[in-house]
Write a structure and sequence with these properties.
heterodimer; A: 113 residues; mainly beta; seven-stranded mixed sheet; four-stranded antiparallel sheet; 0% helix; 49% strand; globular; B: 109 residues
């Protein structure tokens, strides 16, 4: 099992550009999440999904979009990148939403200049 | 509002014991998680508490008091590889994790 994989590992964007962060898991988990982690701050939930075709906003969804067409994939789209979106982005998955641990991908380090 | 507090940084000596505290105020409670995060890497799961008391797992133990909104992670027989950030997270009434900023643990020989 590869677990949770993310691409790319690093990316530099110019202000106003768009990009998609890819996330795939091979554990057949229903729940998937996108977080951002800024220095000195806790992880913040951007979007989450409880199954294919179902997505919902987290704490900081503005400037982002997601889709979940399959159980395995949960891409995060950034439209019109802004410097405030400079962060490390983690995708995670879990079997369920309560007592089950979340498994994290290796992260994408994004810089917007 | 929802809030998770933990110390920013702690220093301990190899072979010693260290306790990392976490206090929380959240809308609802469906369990508390501890994760370890080495620099530049993803968080990895350490422990889960939903009932009051101590959960022991090898060198690591985690304690929860729901009435006090308090948890701690106890690390024994510290090793250099334990140098990392330790993240406390509480699952709220919407089953979303609210994360603390993390405690950076520095182990000295």
């Amino acid at each position: 099992n590869a677990g949770v994989t993310q691409t790319p590992k690093f990316r530099i964007l110019k202000i106003g550009q768009s990009m998609t962060l890819q996330c795939t898991q091979d554990m057949n988990h229903n729940y998937m999440y996108w977080y951002r982690q800024d220095p000195g701050m806790g992880l913040k939930l951007i979007y989450y999904s409880v199954g294919a075709g179902i997505t919902d906003k987290g704490e900081v969804p503005n400037g982002y979009n997601v889709s979940r067409s399959t159980t395995e994939d949960f891409p995060l789209r950034l439209e019109l990148a802004a410097p405030s979106q400079t962060s490390v982005y983690f995708c995670a998955s879990s079997y369920s939403d309560s007592s089950y641990e979340q498994y994290f991908g290796p992260g994408t380090r994004l810089t917007v200049t | 509002g929802q809030n998770i507090d933990q110390p920013t940084e702690m220093t301990a000596t190899e072979g010693a014991i260290v306790q990392i505290n976490c206090t929380y105020q959240t809308s609802g409670f469906n369990g508390l998680f501890w994760y370890q995060q080495h620099a530049g890497e993803a968080p990895t799961f350490l422990s889960y508490n939903v009932l009051d008391g101590l959960e022991e797992k090898g060198r690591f133990s985690s304690f929860l008091s729901r009435s006090k909104g308090y948890s701690y992670l106890l690390l024994k027989e510290l090793q250099m590889k334990d140098s990392a950030s330790y993240l406390c997270a509480v699952m709220d009434s919407n089953y979303q994790l609210i994360w603390g900023a993390g405690t950076k643990l520095i182990i000295k020989p």
